[in-house]
Amino acid sequence: MIRKHSATLHGHRTSFSLEDEFWAELKTIAAARSMPLAALISEIDDHRPPDSNLSSALRLHVLSWLQAGGDRQP
Three-class SS of residue 73? Predict the structure, then answer.
C-alpha cells in the first residue's frame, strides 16, 4: 500500500508517497548505516537530480542499495 510520509529537510517540511515495502527498506538501510532515517532521506534528497521528485529518488536509492547487495551505500 502507498502511504504519505513527512520529513523536515533543511528546515522545510516536505511529504512524499512510498509503498510500505520501500519504507521498510529505507529503515533497514538507515539502520545498516547507523544513521537516523531522517538523515538518510536528507542525504538522498541532497543528491537527487533537480528534475526528479523525492519519492522517485527514494525508490531508486533502495533499488541501488539492493542491487549492490544491500550491505553498502550505492
Answer: coil
